[in-house]
## 1
Amino acid sequence: MASLYGSITVLAALFQLTIHLNSCLAARTNLRKEANTQFIKTSCSGTVYPDLCITTLSSYASEIQASPKLLASTALSVTLNSTRSASKTMIKRSKSQGMKPREAEALSDCMEELRDSVYELQRSVGEMDQPGGKNFGLQMNDIETWVSAALTDEHTCMDGFSGKAMNGNVKTSVRSQIVKVAHMTSNALALVNSYAAAIQNP
Ligand SMILES: *[C@@H]1O[C@H](CO)[C@@H](O)[C@H](O)[C@H]1NC(C)=O
């Protein structure tokens, strides 16, 4: 009877220890998660659209951790993917019936600009993934040039949809998607700039 009681006591102690260890582990994981999210929040505060920056990047916090390089390359990759899907939407839209000639023309111009934008962002993502070798400054310079070009194309596309002559569904749905993509591009450019600056002026 005594030994049974002893076993139960030991088991109970083990059980408590396990609970304690688990909660320590969970607390540590939470701390790390918080630190990663905090890094994204701090970095995003230097962009023009910090809220969008945080919402689009925080789901990658565990991969990014506290790496300015991974933050910049993830921002570029997320932006590329959104630009691609905006481009697809636009192509689908352009096949719909009943558009005014003015709308059809703006849409067609926009499709071209978005295609260029996708291409420029693709080059940037590719360049970011290149291992060192090429001069870092030149590499960053190229990326900054291409991302800026992508942003200009998106603005040109947006402007085509802001005329007073245009209203209705096409304008509203297309424009809001492009605005979001342009804001994401602006944020990605800021994150690339600050990564480049951090390496060049440590
Ligand atoms: C972008 O899309 C590609 C291909 O679908 C995917 O492999 C990649 O993980 C996406 N990027 C991000 C940051 O989600």
## 2
Amino acid sequence: MTRLYEREARSISKLAHLRFYPLAVTGGAGATLIADDGRRLLDFAASWGAASLGHSDPRIREAVDRALSSQAGASYLSGASLATVQLAEELLSLVPARAAGRIWFGHSGSDANETVARMVIAATGRPRIISFSGAYHGGTTGSAAVSGHPSQTLPKAPGLTLVPYPDSYADGEEAAEKALARLDSLLAGPVPPQEVAAFFIEPIQSDGGMLVPPAGFFAEIERRCRKHAILLVSDEVKVGLGRTGQLHAFAHHGIEPDIVVFGKGLGGGLPISAVAGPEAVMNFASAFSFQTLHGNPVCAAAALAVLEAIRTDGLAENAARVGAHLLSRLQALKQRHALIGDVRGQGLAIGIELVTDRATRSPAKRQTAMTVYRAFEYGLVMFYVGVKSNVIELTPPLTLTREEADLGIQMLDMALADVEAGKVDPSLPGAFAGW
Ligand SMILES: *Cc1c(COP(=O)(O)O)cnc(C)c1O
């Protein structure tokens, strides 16, 4: 444990910790983090995807510097602010027509989803929301209330119904059919569709285990939403804005959500989130959901720089290219490591599910914690997700190169080999409970 990590333990509360090993950093550039002990770490997590351009990107630095050299206030609460308006106009030009009404700005995926959950019920007069078991829509009371992730203990919204997310590794070809059958039986009985305001989806269920839905599944969900005038909300917070190889993760499914939620990578490391939706819903009231610094011009300027970099550097294309390379390298690792049960993903949103037995697919929770810890010792930063805590998640910066991808694979390969050979003490993760 480094000195910085110890200092943190004496000064900062654990309430917001989700820790996997004693990561303590003092700087970084691109996909590299500089640890407190001087080690250079390769970052395959990018702070859960928030560092979309990597660290210390010069375009973000320049945009923030400019925004601060003539600061247009600190808030859009009580007055229009230039960068915030520019960002809204830019986002409206990027979302499908159905969602291109108005933009709301927040700080995080959590406050954005919480606002959407409150707004759709208040604006439509319908009391119910549907989302997926395993879904993570945020950590505030109102966003956790419409989430289905087992790590969350906050109470659920009274009108919430959770339906199964298709898991093709667990359920094979029937995954989509099973999930849709459950949804249809609910809509035909206890959950009258005319009472449902919105259906929240994650185009890839990331914290639930990087589940990639089968082709055609979300088109079926969209069909049901249209039939019953249910607003379709795509939570693009982690996997949107280029990460999957397309600008929008929902685009892989040929669907057009009514409401699109952005967060994490939008600010490239600065806190900003956005909701795009129809004018009638987004303008149904004023002074309904705000925090003083929401959509402030400094964060908005950073977000404009991120969107500009995604476009001019072709970062969605880079995510598709480097992601495909990573996936093929991981498929090769799977041949050599019995611990790997499944490898899946789109672009630079990748999951590696570890199992103790490929036949029964029983989750290798302890080995997952040991693997990410060992990989950290080798110099690779990655975390794990999943309702059974056994899926290693890769969400590196969208700027990742092939060479960096290969370097990371090498370290993951060594970590897996050590765990399989019994060279890692099972008590190593110790107090690092993860989730
Ligand atoms: C992380 C995440 C959120 C919450 O975002 P915060 O920045 O943690 O508030 C919401 N939805 C999804 C899909 C996420 O991955």
